[in-house]
Write a structure and sequence with these properties.
This protein has about 270 residues and is mainly β. β4, α1 and β5 form a beta-alpha-beta unit.
Length: about 270
Amino acid sequence: MSSHFHRSIPRRGFLVASAGTGAALALAPVPARATGRQRPFGRYGSPAARLSPKTLYVDPRGRGDHTSVREAVVAAGSGWTLVIAPDTYRETVAVDRARTGMTWIGASENPRDVVIVYDNAAGTPKPERCHFRTLTRTDPTGAPYGFVFAPSTAAADPLGYLVTRSRVSSEAPDGYYKLARPWVPSSDTTARPMLTVRDTRLGPGIDAVAPYADMSDAHPWQNQRFAEYRNTGPGADISVPANRPQLTPVQARSATRAAWLGDWEPWKGEC
């Protein structure tokens, strides 16, 4: 299902986005103000004043249409928008292939405020054939605008976030988004985030020279389990090899949907 981006999800495959043992996803919003108690959705309206008839609001304190992202995804259809109030959402979210063009908006101006954390110990998040689209922002003074992924994986977990046969595009200036940064929560400071991106087209919006960022001085990306394999596009250009760890062909044979999920097919039913 932290990834700092305002996210549109055209679907040809499936997406399981949600983490405790897997990945954390933070949605970087476009500019917003006034996200306090009385206005959890900032300038993006509310159930009483919707942006459009196809907008749903998520707030765990009950001020929206739904208290979980998963509930909102089930209720929404193709072309719907989810406005998500600041909080950490620990759940499993599955977006099936029938829901296309869905957009998720983090309601605050701080990318750290809206985090979706995978919370299914039996599962692993694995987007396949997905389109991740990062948008332009006016609140930052410069790059980076945010991060597409921010996995948070328990150190003992051998499987983290696997992205395969997908694409990342952007409306932002070239090089203004990082591909990822680690997310080490205060509840598990021993976490070693894991992200593998393979056979995926990375557009020019990704900073090809330095695609990864540190969470902090204490948690540099180099200490995590980040790797790529056979990615294409301008955002995948390897100009500084030390900044782009690559799988060997032998390692890549184990980085597949079958290896990650086995016979589990969450897009076909209840997670």
